[in-house]
UniProtKB/TrEMBL annotation:
<dbReference type="Pfam" id="PF00005">
    <property type="entry name" value="ABC_tran"/>
</dbReference>
<dbReference type="InterPro" id="IPR017871">
    <property type="entry name" value="ABC_transporter-like_CS"/>
</dbReference>
<comment type="similarity">
    <text>Belongs to the ABC transporter superfamily.</text>
</comment>
<feature type="domain" description="ABC transporter">
    <location>
        <begin position="7"/>
        <end position="248"/>
    </location>
</feature>
<keyword id="KW-0547">Nucleotide-binding</keyword>
<keyword id="KW-0813">Transport</keyword>
<dbReference type="GO" id="GO:0016887">
    <property type="term" value="F:ATP hydrolysis activity"/>
</dbReference>
<dbReference type="InterPro" id="IPR027417">
    <property type="entry name" value="P-loop_NTPase"/>
</dbReference>
<dbReference type="InterPro" id="IPR050153">
    <property type="entry name" value="Metal_Ion_Import_ABC"/>
</dbReference>
<protein>
    <submittedName>
        <fullName>Molybdenum ABC transporter ATP-binding protein</fullName>
    </submittedName>
</protein>
<dbReference type="GO" id="GO:0005524">
    <property type="term" value="F:ATP binding"/>
</dbReference>
<dbReference type="InterPro" id="IPR003439">
    <property type="entry name" value="ABC_transporter-like_ATP-bd"/>
</dbReference>
<dbReference type="InterPro" id="IPR003593">
    <property type="entry name" value="AAA+_ATPase"/>
</dbReference>
<keyword id="KW-0067">ATP-binding</keyword>
Amino acid sequence: MDVADILQVEQVTLRKAKKPILQQISWQVEQGEHWAIVGLNGSGKTSLLKIITGYEWPTEGHVAVLGNRYGQVPIQEVRKRIGWVSMSLDDRFHTKGQDTVLEIVLSGLHGTVGVYEPLGEADVAKAEAAIETFGLTHLTDERFLTLSQGERKRAFLARAWVAKPELFILDEPTTGLDLIAREQLLQTLESVATTKGAPTFLYVTHYPEEIQPFITHVLMLKDGRVVAQGRKDEVLTKETITAAFGCPLDVIVESGRYWVKPM
């Protein structure tokens, strides 16, 4: 295992109640790559993310993240270098619905839900910069419960971005968005991912058409196994997508996006 890579997953298997959730997953992410993880519900995408972030432990196999092999380092120290946006954030912040966008983003500096640590002007400046990056400056003082779904997603992205992570993980970030809000969010991600010094992105989705041009590689899962992995243009073919989704599908490439339709 080369711990110098951004991510190294080696022969990882996860079982729950003797049921296999992930089976013999081996996967490597190197500096300069951005990956999409694609598959149907139940394919193992979120379980794999939980292992990468240290919230699940594999039944078998080994994981190294940002040069740190799990089991040999404090997981919490690795998490400080990871920005993670998941669907669970909406529920967690609902209990603190009076938090403003600024407070939500400031909480990302310490990985908490809510602000409990003393914060200075430099911290506020970092949060305001992240808020601007994701187009929410005009909503800085708005409270969580008044935000639209799209605005909440952007607030969570800014929260994950504020601590300048080296690995940026997005677990189905467009869930619940309408077509316009989805495309606007995807355009924002394309913009921030292509800025100088951007972190490595892992983007999880059911939908190949969400894979933006900045994504370089794809990991495709089905029933907890790897169907295909590698460069985007080599993986997003009608053969592999048909195998992963279990029905005949064709792929149309247009403006760097991959659109899927039934055959």
